[in-house]
Every structure is written in C-alpha cells, then in structure tokens.
Design a protein that fits this description.
Blueprint (H helix, E strand, L loop, with lengths): L1 E17 L3 E3 L9 H11 L3 E3 L7 H15 L9 E5 L10 H9 L6 E5 L5 H13 L6 E9 L17 E22 L7 E2 L17 E2 L5 E2 L5 E2 L1 H23 L8 E4 L4 H11 L10 H4 L6 H10 L9 E7 L3 E7 L5 E2 L3 E2 L1
Parallel strand pairs: 1-15, 1-16, 4-5, 4-6, 12-13
Antiparallel strand pairs: 1-7, 2-3, 6-7, 7-14, 8-11, 9-10, 13-14
Helix pairs in contact: 2-3, 5-6
C-alpha cells in the first residue's frame, strides 16, 4: 500500500448535484420476481436512484455542482490552478473531458487539466492527487470534479447491476491553508480486473457489430458487450477482504484509534456489506452516514454525495473523518482528514 501524509492542505468546500428523475427499485418487478424484490431491496439498502436524461452527462452534473460552489462560496475562477475530472463515464474516448470542463466553467487557459478513470475508489485517489498538487509552489487551489452516469452503461436486464446504480456529479475545492494533517492509504490488485468491467469498446477488445448482441449469463443477467458487468459475490468477497484491514492500517499509520473517529463514510456499495464492515471495526452505526437508500451506488461520486446529502447542517463533530472507497480495478483507498472547516453546500438537482 502507498501511505501518504499531508499538512497544510484541506478541503475548502463540497457541492453535489443529482438528476431530478427518480427511479424506484419497486418498479423492477419485470426483472426480479415480486416475492424476491423486497428482500433484494432490504439487503442492498437501495429503494430509489436518480437517473440522468439521455442527453445529460456526468460532466453536466459536475458543472452544476461547480457553479453552485463558485456562486455560494464567492470563489474567484482565476484562483483555480488545476482541474481534475474523475469518472468512468466521460464525454468522449478522446479528448479528455477536463479541458472541456475548463472551457465551459470559464477557468483560465493556464489551468492544469486532466481526467482520471477510476471507479469507486476514485474520490479518495482524486483527493490524494489534488492534495499533492497543493503542496507545490504555484498551485494553491484545485477543483476536483467527480461524477458518474452509470445508468448509461448498465443493462435494463441485469439483475445484479440494475438495482444498484444511480447518477450524480460533485465538486470539491482543495486548497493550501491552516489545515492539520491528512493520511492516505492507496492500494490496487489488477488480478481482479475482470470482476467489474465493460469488456468491449477499448483497444483490447475493439468495437464490433456482434458485441451489440444481448447474451445471458448463468445467473440470468442479460447484457451486451458494451455494458457494465460484475460478479456480485466476488465483489462482496473482495470488499470483506480489504476494507476493514485497510482502515485499520490507516489508523495505525495516523497513530489513531477508532474510538477517536467522528465519522466513517464508506463508498455506497451495499448497506449489508458496509454495515458488516462497521461492526467489524467496532464503530457506532450512528457515526456511519448513508445516502444509498435514496441515490443508490453512484460509483466514484458516492462519497462526496453522501457528505453533501447527509452532513449538510448536521454532524457538527467532523474533525476526524475517514473516507473509504473500493471497487473496479481492483482498487481501494482510505483517507483520514479534518472536515471541521469544510463548507458543505445544500444538495442541488439538475
């Protein structure tokens, strides 16, 4: 694992935007038998998800969140030296979406911009990159935009994925300042790449007409080659293996104990699973906020979305907060940081 420590860098503010359209999991009785549907909903903890319209991309949701941040916090756009866009659902294969966002947001042409293609660990990784830039001369503020429209790459006939994924966009402003120490643990295991993937459309398996054909797997899921697929049990086993251990390692690195932690915010993957993590880590469940019931799994955007939706005007004690994400890659990461000075903006809709 890579262990990173920063001082004098922190999160100034966070905003998030979700589509206004709501899709309930109760409507999936065409996919999951009614006698099993309520059990599925209770196990995963998801009752509804936000779904972007056909012409709305992850970048559009991030723009709305960023504009709210600029306006509500009176941020001068010329003060942004770097823009990082984290997403698996970018606007194009080429060019990168970050320069497009720089232009649409009216940032300076001298802004450093690039994309990061990471899934559920993406927010933690994105923060580590932004913190790193803010330790350098000439970079005082970084805009981290993290968003996903997973609904666009999920099959309507995938019993494992369809009930899980929703859409969201977020904006986080990272800056130099009078901030305390932050501690990161970052990890990966590419041997599990096939556990969660879109198999066709890149250059390993190029696009083809045949790949549009829907196929059915042994678990009853129907997808084409351009749609996201995962092995739910392998994901569960992966999370159980790495998450509690990584958080314990992070605490040891920071010289902290779980008793001193104010909040533990997991990537919103599956409530049954993350509840188990919390019990294993012996942290009170009231210190583990959830947004998964109303927004589903929004991949890399789930941690900042949970911060905005659940911490806005509540949880005054947030000096020692752990954020932890795990998913495709396989990739996982955790960070211990101080959110007591962070301004959390009210959730907005697109």
């Amino acid at each position: 694992m890579a262990e990173l420590r920063f001082k004098g860098v922190g999160i100034h503010s966070i905003a998030a935007c979700v589509p206004s359209r709501i899709e309930t999991n109760e409507s999936l009785d065409y996919l999951i038998p009614k006698e099993d549907l309520e059990k599925t909903i209770n196990n995963i903890g998801i009752r509804e998800r936000r779904i972007a319209d056909k012409d709305v991309c992850a970048s559009d949701l991030c723009i709305r969140a960023a504009e709210q941040l600029f306006e509500d916090r009176s941020i001068e756009k010329e003060d942004i030296q770097a823009l990082i866009f984290v997403s698996q659902t970018s606007d194009y294969h080429q060019p990168a979406t970050a320069p497009v966002l720089q232009h649409k947001l009216g940032l300076s042409k001298s802004t450093l911009c690039f994309d990061v293609n990471l899934a559920c660990s993406g927010y933690v990784y994105g923060l580590s990159i932004a913190y790193s830039f803010c330790t350098q001369m000439g970079c005082d503020r970084v805009l981290l935009l993290v968003g996903e429209t997973m609904s666009k790459i999920t099959s309507e006939f995938d019993r494992e994925s369809k009930p899980l994924f929703g859409d969201a966009g977020t904006a986080t402003l990272i800056e130099k300042g009078e901030y305390g120490e932050s501690f990161f643990s970052l990890n990966s295991d590419g041997s599990g790449a096939e556990v969660m993937m879109i198999p066709v459309g890149g250059f390993r398996n190029p696009a083809s007409v045949d790949a549009f054909e829907m196929t059915k797997d042994g678990r009853g899921n129907k997808r084409n080659g351009y749609q996201f697929r995962m092995d739910g049990m392998d994901v569960f086993n992966f999370g159980m293996k790495v998450e509690p251990k990584d958080i314990k390692n992070l605490l040891a690195f920071a010289g902290e104990t779980m008793d001193n932690i104010d909040l533990l915010i997991f990537h919103q993957a599956n409530k049954f699973m993350t509840d188990f993590f919390a019990k294993r880590l012996k942290i009170a469940i009231e210190k583990v906020p959830y947004s998964i019931d109303r927004f589903g799994n929004t991949s890399s955007a789930s941690i900042p979305l949970t911060i905005v939706s659940e911490l806005y005007e509540v949880f005054s004690e947030r000096k020692k907060v752990i954020l932890s994400g795990f998913g495709a890659g396989l990739s996982w990461g955790s960070v211990l940081l101080d959110l007591s000075r962070c301004k959390i903006l009210k959730l907005t809709e697109y």
